[in-house]
Amino acid sequence: MKKKLEEIIKEPSIIFRVNQTYKPDMTTEEIYEITRKSWVLGKRKFDAQYAFTVYRGNIEEVFKINSWNKAGDNRWEFEGEVAEKEVRNKYIDLSIKNFFKKGEATPIKYVNC
Are 67 and 46 in contact (CB under 8 A)? Predict the structure, then answer.
């Protein structure tokens, strides 16, 4: 039986797919900047504790979300920091590409929130 994404990622999180802006040689700070802003998000964002940077179905980085700020009309950005080591070690380099439908356009996915 196929596992659900919620069974793999236990923490309340948002997955941000950054296929258009991610480059393999980016610094952690550059990855943070492309992950944290500027997204159209619903109320569930307030329940998320972590932000996952996903490039081509692979988790590249994990950030702890500390707060949310408006970033223009209907757009939001989070303030945060690199997640704690045990969370990062659990998820970085994990492939979750099987959890996206082919042609799925939405760049965000809520998990457990």
Answer: no
